[in-house]
Amino acid sequence: MVCTKQKTGIEVHMSSRNKILSAIRSNKPGAQPLPGITGFTAQQPDTERFVNTLQSIGGRVVRVRSFEEIIAHIREAFPEGTRIISSLPQLAGIAETGWSNAPAHSLENVQLAVFKAQLGVCENGAVWVTEQDIVQRAAAFIAEHLAMVLEESTLVATMHDAYLQLHNQRYGYGVFIAGPSKTADIEQSLVLGAHGPRTMTLFLV
Amino acid sequence: MEQSNQQHADLARKFNGNESRVNWHDETLWWIRQKRDKIVWQVPEWEALREAASQIKHHVLGNLADYLEEFERNAQQNGVTVHWAADAAEHNRIVHSLLQQQGVTRMVKSKSMLTEECHLNEYLAEHGVEVIDSDLGERIVQLLKEPPSHIVLPCIHIKKEEIGELFHKYLGTPEGNADPQLLTHAARLHVREVFMSRKVALTGVNFAVAETGEFVVCTNEGNADMGAHLADVHIASMGIEKIIPRREHLGVFLRLLTRSATGQPVTTYSSHFAKPRPGQQMHLVIVDNGRTVQLGREQFRNSLKCIRCAACMNTCPVYRRSGGHSYHTAIAGPIGSILAPNLDMKQYADLPFASTLCGSCSNVCPVKIDIHNQLYQWRQVITQNGHSPAAKTAAMKVMATTLSQPKVYTLAGKAGRWVLRNMPWLVNNRLNPWYKQRNMPEAPKQSFREWYAQNKKQG
Amino acid sequence: MTIGLFIPCYVDQFYPRAAIATLELLEKYGCSVSFPAAQTCCGQPMANSGYEHLTHSCNEHFTTLFADYDYVVCPSGSCTLHVKDHLHASNEQAALGIRRKLYELTEFLTDVLQVTTIDAYFPYRVGMHQSCHGQRGLHLAQMSELVAPPFSKPLQLLQQVKGIELVSLNRKDECCGFGGTFCVTEEAVSVKMGKDRVADHLQHDVQYITGVDMSCLMHMEGILKRRGSKVQVIHIAEILNAAVLQPATV
């Protein structure tokens, strides 16, 4: 800290800010150009790779043609009375859809959350959603189980291709989700369901 | 100084007291190295990607102040409060003051090596604040009252039976049960309660995007998100070097990070935080803590490219056989050994010597930090700054004189005897550490130079 | 073509066989080889211990001795790498020249002499230890960490030796733990690394462990002998120089 009179927190922080920035300016290396990364993009998406990769990281993939099939699948997997939430009006018959203003903590007993993802990445099985898609940020994490609906046509090959689409997108929060929450902290044994959803099902349309 | 130079070696010797455990530790980490190899071979452009990442980071280091200002401006526009901390103490004070403003004495924290570096938990504990680490591995070492031994796999040195015992004691799991599934579930329930009740959550930052003011946090467990999305206040701590220029550069780094770290294609969650939720506060603490000094050290500044993947630890044959705690610093292994001397050259004078300079670390590094060359360079800097033992310096001076004067070298009797007496690994005395577990090479009847003089005409 | 033979100090004293084999091998391929008798040591033990600043006069001496040869050849990847990376002298032009014309033995054979046939016979099961400085420093062989096509200059030569049976190790390029002064300052880890490396070879029933660096081999030999093993270490030059005998007469 360079500021000798530390009357307010702000004053202290401003001085550290300037100290840091000026130290950087006097210590930095000579400028080097930013390399181009366009050479990595525009690979062809490969659905099979996406499916295999997602399955290899613990995700479940269900190929469907319609929301009816999705509903049937959910009905089969979850007993009646299970708390299910979704952002998709097509699922209003089996899921709550009017929970956008509910306190996040009240979602704790949600068994299944179903959302639509914007795109999927073949190289790593991840899907992209923003807070518009998941209504509340906590929803994709607090639910016991997570399901995503993804149109096959949105698949991209790599993360470069994904960011080619996302680079101008405006969001308060967005996340790539690749399979269920997991940990291998205990002797490298993979356990699905660490702090987030214990399963992740992807309905590929 | 003598003591400081023995530290890693002493701690490593203790670790080697239990050979089967060393084997287990080595094999576990080697398995991760193999997983890494397997997955990077699925990316044909891997080496080009490493080069691009290295160059992007180099470009950032050359324009860091501008990018930080751009980042700050955009983050503020997004509604994020930006704080700057010159050192660990200031970082800790800022975090504490934010907790005080909320009137809370409990916080949940996801993994942040920066807060380990700053010893935030200890500081807050001294000020009456309880911190619960939510990452499973970090929670385990926290309950054991130990620091993490690995930056990605904090309890890689602990056996499941010990975790079973620990969880039995603290979380009430059945005695004698060491099933990872059961133990993980117990931790899930325990930490879920914490997530549900904490008003302030702290996370680390993997990448901060200057162009958008957003920051990205990567976890497998979802603990950073659970903490942040359920808290009224989200504090994120980041070192100044976390900046990348544009969102599209995340494509490069997210492809490299997890493949290098654990051999997964990507972490389960790559969370992009741009704005606070309505009604939420989001604070970013940007920390220097010696980084600007390192930036000024020409031969060491590339260490600031590090993205904390720990691939260098997993591949390091010394780390695998000495354990993370032998490095007595928050960030262990090869990368820690080139970062720590910048923070305290005397205290960490031993670390650059805790390596065979085999170079495997530099080869796995996703941002191509020349780690083993920097270890060599640190050895020179540490010696020139007077942090080497005096006896070693005296011996080296004798060696330098002798080796530059062939007559002295030869007159020292037979040159062979000189080598036997003076080569550090061959010092012929009973205290020679070489001899403890290794036989000495047998001296042949004739040295090569003697044979040459007898059999060949001198050139 | 005149070649200055640079023999590491501990090879001179403890492993003259390796030096003799190197000399004979080079002569076999028509080189005119001299051993400047005033050579001492390249200074690596000092430099790796943090005392590179004390190696100046050592470097001057080295530069004077080797400046006039067409090539300098050394049967050690580690010493070669040290000189290539760190040799500087008041006559910097000469030092630079040496850094450029200095070769480790196997790369000299494959790259300069472009040896395609080896007349040697070595009917044993052999494990090849990839010494790190030769491999990762001089790129004598591809490194397992990189996504790049495999190659190996030492193996390329060994594969031409008649009768040899080369084994494939579980960890093909892990460090043996010698590491210069590391082997005594970090004795516990150094020995453990050495034991593990040796175990990999023993698991594959080798009769010999070979490599381009006698220092690594000396370390592993120390461990082998301590446990009473009959497995021997041998410098690669000795195998490449092993006389071709009719199997019947062996």
TrEMBL record, chain B:
InterPro entries recorded: 4Fe4S_Fe-S-bd, 4Fe4S_Fe_S_CS, FTHF_cligase-like_sf, Helical_ferredxn, LUD_dom, LutB/LldF, LutB_C, NagB/RpiA_transferase-like
The organism's place on the tree of life at top rank: Bacteria
Biological processes, Gene Ontology terms: lactate metabolic process
Record keywords: 4Fe-4S, Electron transport, Iron, Iron-sulfur, Metal-binding, Repeat, Transport
PROSITE patterns according to UniProt: 4FE4S_FER_1, 4FE4S_FER_2
Transmembrane stretches, start-end: none
Gene Ontology MF terms: 4 iron, 4 sulfur cluster binding; metal ion binding
One matching Pfam family: LutB_C
Every 4Fe-4S ferredoxin-type domain range: 296-326
Keyword 4Fe-4S appears in the UniProt entry: yes
Protein known as: Lactate utilization protein
Organism this protein belongs to: Deminuibacter soli
Automatic annotation (TrEMBL), chain C:
Domain (Cysteine-rich) ranges: 4-84, 126-220
GO CC, one annotated term: cytosol
Pfam families reported in the protein's UniProt record: CCG
Protein name: (Fe-S)-binding protein
Classification via PANTHER family: LACTATE UTILIZATION PROTEIN A (PTHR30296:SF0), UNCHARACTERIZED PROTEIN YKGE (PTHR30296)
Taxonomy, superkingdom: Bacteria
Source organism of the structure: Deminuibacter soli
Gene Ontology molecular-function annotations: oxidoreductase activity
